[in-house]
């Protein structure tokens, strides 16, 4: 067995101070170090638009929410902290997998109402959404014709509901409000007899036979995967992002043995990405494909997981992070505070990235109250400060102490976010803002206030005089100064 390294990338600061170490941390997929700009101009254009959006919603949802356990991983026969089987069925592997897959016959999220989610996400200032159409366990949250292990099969009680094809409903609801739409899809499928062939027992997360020894069997898996993705690319309206997880399904020659978890991949698991992406882009021109951790033409942005790069990256990237401790719904999960999430967003954006924040819907089809509460708090902050977030790019000096910078991509305007320790913004009477390469500052304003800010030049930037009234307007989490030059 092999393990994910906890912190392989020295260039990355694990923001454990913000998030605490948790289960979702330990499972993390580490990020590609290489990047290839896509040749396709339409993809380049969409990537540029996507980079303006900054803040997205991720949702991990499946039958696993009924038990409130980790998404999929409890049926993976590896002995890791996050794969442990719990509950009354845990004693034997086979008994557990059977009971797990039987969750299909009780899944009935009757409170499912994607319009309610969109409303909350939109208020928070989120602009795109990525949903788990199928996770590693293979349960399709869409009306696939390739398997009956799906939400719309008659065995699933929710199949009688008019909104049973939840992927379609979610995509339509978010698209109506102009969100970019992303389909998370797991390449590995632990239900498919062509991935975990019942002739052999599954041994770990990987395919359980050698595809080169049994090419016909593997071909069936390739066809199955292609067909499912084709369904998603043709029957669900406009899709902007295809987010492919499960980086161990990859051509053997792309395995990087310097990375712990990739050393465990014994077989060539080439699913023919050029063919899949070609089909997908024919149906969805300009589609952003994120074949995460497989550098090349099909990894159009990189995906640091549960962490923020210490320095800006030169390529498009997105930190995906859980709002609670887990990707999946866990009753009583501990949610990050509004304060932490806002400051996290500022840090990510100041380094040129996007933040994809995950909420795991529960088995009733709704989110925990905390999720709505946090989105509301973030929205209140965004109403005042969103101007410095959207359409921005990173700019030196990126950050200095508690000050984080962004730059509007079209105007000569820099934003300096001053993060505060407490909820309430409490600025000192005089504040130094270091600036790089700016000869002449024309104007400084505080977002959320009509009053002008006085400043004078200082050795390596400007020094602001802060009127006491600024601390009385009720700003929270972080104040943002707009600096025109
Ligand atoms: C981790 C988890 C996986 C989850 C993914 C989201 O890799 O192992 O279950 O879907 O993070 O980024």
Automatic annotation (TrEMBL):
Gene3D superfamilies recorded for this chain?
Answer: Glycosidases (3.20.20.80), Golgi alpha-mannosidase II (2.60.40.1180)
Location of the Alpha-L-fucosidase C-terminal domain: 401-483
Q: Identify the InterPro entries for this entry.
A: FUC_metazoa-typ, Fucosidase_C, GH, Glyco_hydro_29, Glyco_hydro_29_N, Glyco_hydro_b
One GO BP annotation is:
fucose metabolic process
Q: Name one Pfam family in it.
A: Fucosidase_C
Query: Span of the secretion signal?
Result: 1-26
Gene Ontology terms, cellular component aspect? lysosome
As recorded in UniProt, its EC number(s) are: 3.2.1.51
The keyword Hydrolase belongs to this UniProt entry's keyword annotation: yes
| Keywords on record | Glycosidase, Hydrolase, Signal
Q: Which GO terms describe its molecular function?
A: alpha-L-fucosidase activity
To which protein family does this belong? Belongs to the glycosyl hydrolase 29 family.
Q: Which function does this protein serve?
A: Alpha-L-fucosidase is responsible for hydrolyzing the alpha-1,6-linked fucose joined to the reducing-end N-acetylglucosamine of the carbohydrate moieties of glycoproteins.
PANTHER family given for it? ALPHA-L-FUCOSIDASE (PTHR10030), ALPHA-L-FUCOSIDASE-RELATED (PTHR10030:SF37)
Please report the name of this protein according to its UniProt entry: alpha-L-fucosidase
Tell me the organism.
Mucilaginibacter agri
């Amino acid at each position: 067995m092999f393990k994910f390294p906890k912190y392989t990338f020295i260039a990355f600061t694990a923001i454990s101070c913000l998030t605490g170490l948790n289960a979702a941390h330990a499972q993390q997929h580490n990020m590609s170090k290489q990047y290839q700009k896509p040749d396709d101009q339409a993809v380049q254009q969409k990537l540029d638009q996507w980079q303006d959006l900054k803040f997205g919603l991720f949702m991990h949802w499946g039958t696993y929410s009924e038990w409130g356990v980790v998404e999929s991983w409890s049926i993976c026969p590896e002995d890791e902290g996050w794969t442990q089987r719990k509950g009354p069925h845990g004693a034997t592997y086979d008994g557990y997998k059977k009971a797990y897959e039987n969750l299909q016959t009780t899944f009935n999220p009757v409170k499912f109402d994607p319009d309610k989610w969109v409303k909350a996400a939109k208020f928070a200032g989120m602009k795109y959404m990525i949903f788990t159409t199928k996770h590693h366990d293979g349960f399709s949250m869409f009306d696939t014709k390739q398997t009956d292990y799906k939400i719309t099969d008659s065995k699933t009680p929710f199949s009688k509901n008019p909104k049973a094809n939840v992927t379609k409903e979610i995509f339509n609801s978010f698209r109506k409000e102009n969100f970019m739409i992303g389909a998370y899809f797991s390449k590995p499928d632990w239900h498919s007899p062509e991935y975990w062939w019942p002739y052999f027992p599954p041994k770990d997360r990987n395919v359980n036979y050698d595809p080169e020894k049994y090419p016909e069997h593997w071909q069936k898996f390739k066809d199955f995967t292609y067909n499912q993705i084709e369904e998603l690319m043709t029957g669900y309206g406009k899709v902007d992002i295809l987010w492919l997880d499960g980086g161990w399904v990859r051509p053997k020659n792309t395995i990087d043995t310097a990375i712990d978890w990739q050393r465990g991949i014994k077989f060539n698991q080439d699913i023919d990405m050029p063919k899949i992406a070609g089909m997908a882009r024919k149906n969805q021109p300009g589609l952003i494909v994120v074949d995460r951790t497989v550098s090349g033409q099909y990894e159009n942005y990189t995906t640091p997981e549960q962490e923020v790069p210490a320095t800006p990256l030169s390529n498009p990237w997105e930190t995906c992070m859980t709002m609670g401790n887990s990707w999946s719904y866990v009753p009583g999960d501990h949610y990050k505070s509004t304060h932490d999430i806002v400051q996290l967003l500022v840090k990510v954006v100041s380094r040129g990235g996007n933040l994809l924040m995950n909420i795991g819907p529960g088995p009733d089809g709704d989110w925990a109250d905390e999720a709505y509460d946090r989105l509301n708090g973030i929205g209140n902050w965004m109403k005042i400060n969103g101007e410095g977030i959207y359409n921005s790019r990173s700019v030196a000096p990126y950050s200095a102490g508690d000050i984080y910078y962004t730059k509007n991509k079209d105007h000569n305007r820099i934003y300096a976010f001053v993060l505060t320790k407490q909820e309430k913004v409490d600025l000192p009477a005089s504040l130094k803002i270091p600036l790089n390469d700016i000869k002449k500052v024309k104007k400084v304003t505080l977002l959320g206030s009509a009053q002008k800010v006085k400043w004078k030049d200082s050795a390596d930037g400007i020094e602001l005089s802060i009127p006491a009234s600024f601390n009385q307007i009720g700003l929270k989490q972080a104040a943002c100064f707009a600096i025109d030059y």
